[in-house]
Design a protein that fits this description.
By secondary structure, this protein is mostly beta strands.
C-alpha cells in the first residue's frame, strides 16, 4: 500500500552459534592499532542535551538521526510493549505519576535545546525504531512492531509518503504471528532501519526486527526516492551455515559513499556487506566477551546476548569514510573500526548508568563535525553526545 500526500512524491542453537562465531573471530578483532595518531578519540559531553521542557520523561530511545544543520532527531517510545521479553518500553507508572511522556519525536539544536517536537503515537509506526533524514530534509520513520515506513516534512506537520498499511504485516496471514513472506513490494514485517544512497537518493529499508512473540522478515528492500519499488534481497547464509546460523535479523542498514551497503546481521554478531544490487561481498565479524559466567540452564542470560555485538553502524564524515563506528550492545561499547579492513582499532564506553556509560546502547548517529550521538533502550532510556577530540 503506497499513500501519496503530493502528486510528485510516490512513495535456539542460536546462542551456541553466536558464541562459536565470537571465539573464532577474537583474534581478527583485537584492537592492536591504538597508537595511531589520527585515531578518533571521543569524550562525553555532559552538557548535552539540556534539560527537557516541563516534566517530560523519555521511554526507550528507538532511533536517532541528524540533519544537514546538525539538528538531532530522537525517537522515543511513549507507551509500547515489546522486546524479547515483552517488557514495557514506554513510561512506568512511577514516571507517569511524577511527570509526563515526552513527544515521540524531539528535535534538538547543536547546543542540545529542544527546538521542535511532534508525533501522534496513534498515527506513527508502532514501536518507533529507525530514523533517517533525506537530502530534502524530510524525516523518515519506521517501527519494529509494524509493517510501514513513513516520510514526514521536516517539521513533522505533514505526512508526505507512507509505504504499507499500519498494523498489517508481510506474512502468510497479514499478522505478526504469520509466516514471513519476504516478498511484498509494498508491505513490511517489523522494520529496523532506513538508509539512503548518497548519490541517487534511493531508499534502503532493513525489513526484519526479531522480537519476542511472532515472526519477522529478513531482507533489504530498495525504493527510488519517490517510493517506487526497485529490488530486494534476503540476508546471506553460506551453505555450511544453513543448519547452524542464527535466524537472520537485519537490525541496521547504511550505504557508504563508495556504494557498499552495510547490514547488521545482529544475531550472528557481524556486518554483511553487499553492493547496491544486493550481491553479497563479505562478512565482517565482531567479537564480544561475556564478563560474568553464564550459569548452566540460564536461558535469560543466553537470550540477552542476542542484542548482538554489531547492532548499529555509522561512518566518519570524511569523504572516504575511513572509519566505521559499531554499537557492541553485548559489551556496551562503541567500536572504532577501519572500514577498509574491518579491523577494530579501539572502542569507548562501558556498562553502567553514569554519564558516558551505556545500558543497552541501541542506535546512533554522526553529525558533520564527527560527533556521535548514542541512544539507549531498555534500562538506559537516554541520548548522549560524544565529542570528537582527535582524528578530524
Amino acid at each position: 500500500m503506497l499513500l501519496r500526500a503530493r502528486s510528485h512524491r510516490g512513495l535456539q542453537k542460536i546462542a551456541a552459534a553466536s558464541a562459536v562465531l565470537a571465539m573464532t573471530v577474537a583474534l581478527y578483532c583485537l584492537p592492536s592499532a591504538r597508537a595511531q595518531s589520527d585515531l578518533p578519540k571521543f569524550e562525553v559531553d555532559p552538557t548535552w542535551p539540556k534539560p527537557l521542557p516541563g516534566r517530560w520523561v523519555t521511554g526507550e530511545i528507538g532511533g536517532v538521526c541528524v540533519d544537514a544543520q546538525d539538528h538531532v532527531f530522537v525517537l522515543q517510545r511513549v507507551s509500547d510493549v515489546g522486546g524479547m521479553d515483552n517488557h514495557l518500553e514506554g513510561l512506568t507508572d512511577d514516571e507517569l505519576n511524577a511527570g509526563e511522556a515526552a513527544p515521540p519525536v524531539m528535535e534538538f539544536d547543536p547546543q542540545g535545546n529542544v527546538v521542535n517536537s511532534w508525533g501522534d503515537a496513534k498515527l506513527l509506526p508502532k514501536d518507533l525504531h529507525g530514523c533517517a533524514i533525506d537530502r530534502d530534509g524530510h524525516v523518515w520513520l519506521d517501527g519494529s512492531e509494524d509493517g510501514v515506513v513513513q516520510e514526514y516534512s521536516h517539521d513533522g506537520k505533514k505526512l508526505l509518503l507512507q509505504i504499507g498499511k499500519r498494523g498489517v504485516f508481510d506474512s502468510s496471514d497479514g499478522t505478526v504471528m504469520g509466516a514471513p513472506l519476504n516478498s511484498s513490494p509494498s508491505q513490511f514485517f517489523r522494520v529496523s532501519e532506513i538508509a539512503f544512497d548518497p548519490h541517487n537518493g534511493d531508499v534502503y529499508v532493513a525489513d526484519g526486527h526479531a522480537k519476542g512473540k511472532g515472526n519477522n522478515n529478513f531482507r533489504i528492500v530498495v525504493y527510488d526516492r519517490d517510493g517506487h519499488y526497485l529490488r530486494q534481497w534476503k540476508l546471506h547464509r553460506s551453505a555450511d551455515e544453513t543448519a547452524t546460523a542464527a535466524p537472520a535479523t537485519p537490525h541496521c542498514v547504511r550505504v557508504a559513499n563508495d556504494g557498499q551497503v552495510y547490514v547488521c546481521d545482529r544475531w550472528m554478531n557481524r556486518l554483511q556487506v553487499y553492493d547496491t544490487k544486493g550481491n553479497f561481498q563479505k562478512n565482517i565479524p565482531f567479537a564480544f566477551k561475556v564478563w560474568t559466567p553464564v550459569p548452566p540452564g540460564s536461558a535469560s542470560r543466553r537470550d540477552a546476548q542476542l542484542v548482538g555485538s554489531a547492532s548499529s553502524v555509522e561512518f566518519s564524515p570524511d569523504k572516504d569514510q575511513k572509519y566505521m563506528y559499531i554499537v557492541n550492545e553485548i559489551d556496551e561499547q562503541i567500536s572504532i573500526v577501519d572500514r577498509a579492513s574491518g579491523r577494530v582499532l579501539d572502542s569507548f564506553g562501558r556498562p553502567g548508568h553514569q554519564i558516558g556509560e551505556f545500558m543497552h546502547a541501541h542506535t546512533m548517529a554522526v553529525d558533520s563535525k564527527g560527533n556521535i550521538y548514542v541512544g539507549e533502550s531498555v534500562e538506559g532510556r537516554r541520548i548522549q553526545k560524544f565529542r570528537l577530540l582527535t582524528g578530524k
